[in-house]
Amino acid sequence: MRGLKGKNVLVTGGASGIGQATAARFLEEGCAVCVVDRSAEARARVVDELPALSAVIDADVSNMGQVKAAFQAAVDCMGSVDVLINNAGISIRHDFLDITPENWDKVLGVNLTGVFYMAQTAARHMMDKGSGVIINAASTAGDTGYPHYADYSASKGGVIALTLAMALELAPTIRVNAVSPGYTLTPMQRAEYTDEMLAAVNSKIPMGRHAKPEEMAALYAFLASEDAAFATGQVYVMDGAETTGGLCSQWAHD
Questions:
Q1: What are the structural domain ranges in the chain?
Q2: Which CATH superfamily is domain 8-252 in?
Q3: Residue 158 above 60 pLDDT?
Q4: Angle, nearest 10°, between helix axes 101-108 and 150-170?
Q5: What share of the chain in percent tops pLDDT 90?
Q6: Would residue 71 be called left, alpha or beta, if left means φ above 0 and alpha means ψ between -120 and 50 degrees?
Q7: pTM here?
Q8: Fewer CB within 10 A of the terminal residue: the chain, N end or C end?
Q9: What is the DSSP string of 70-121?
Q10: Catalytic machinery residues
């Protein structure tokens, strides 16, 4: 991708799944990359698997104090942050009537408030230096709503609206977009499936399979590059046409 070599990239939730694949892709593009992740196990593993990372930082994105400290650590390590990939997120499956205030606060805290905290911190830094790119992780659940994931769907719908508002306010200095993945076969996701479960879900996706984390990473790289210099204020869905026919709601009821 044009214009990525030499950029400084910060990826939240970057020690596993799509986040790790995205960190790896930016390293391949010649970027310096720091990742933020609150899982000690994932941090230890990613240090071994991606030894070229500039730093692996322990932080909870739902805590503004930890966000500021983590962002400053990334700046101290790389000199600046040119690209923020706001990828950290969690989900908890439960019926709407069973969601507790604690469940709600936890999911919204990471998925929406955490995106806001990190994006605002990065945007202030980027405005001062005169340029930057912020890409937020949304979800097809933010467009359609998923049964048993009301809090997750609400959080991702909020990320989409936040992205659009940010893009309007921060242009032309900072470009802001969102990526909405469909079902992506991360190692954690694969571990939760039997072969039969995986085949059943794949059968409802027009492309006949889950996305690969590396495919999501390629979209992040494109949106951060000069090849996407006029792209801002958009939500890019990559779901194998899953949502085109409302298929996500069908399988979620199964």
A1: 8-252
A2: NAD(P)-binding Rossmann-like Domain (3.40.50.720)
A3: yes
A4: 30
A5: 82
A6: alpha
A7: 0.94
A8: C
A9: HHHHHHHHHS--SEEEE---------GGG--HHHHHHHHIIIIIHHHHHHHH
A10: 152
Tokens of 55: 């730093």
Beta pairing partners, 209: none
Are 86 and 137 in contact by the 8 Å Cβ rule? The answer is yes
Residues β-bridged to residue 176: 134
Give the model confidence (pLDDT) of 173-209 as tens digits. Answer: 999 999 999 888 987 677 778 899 899 888 889 999 9
**Mean pLDDT of the region 89-117:** 96
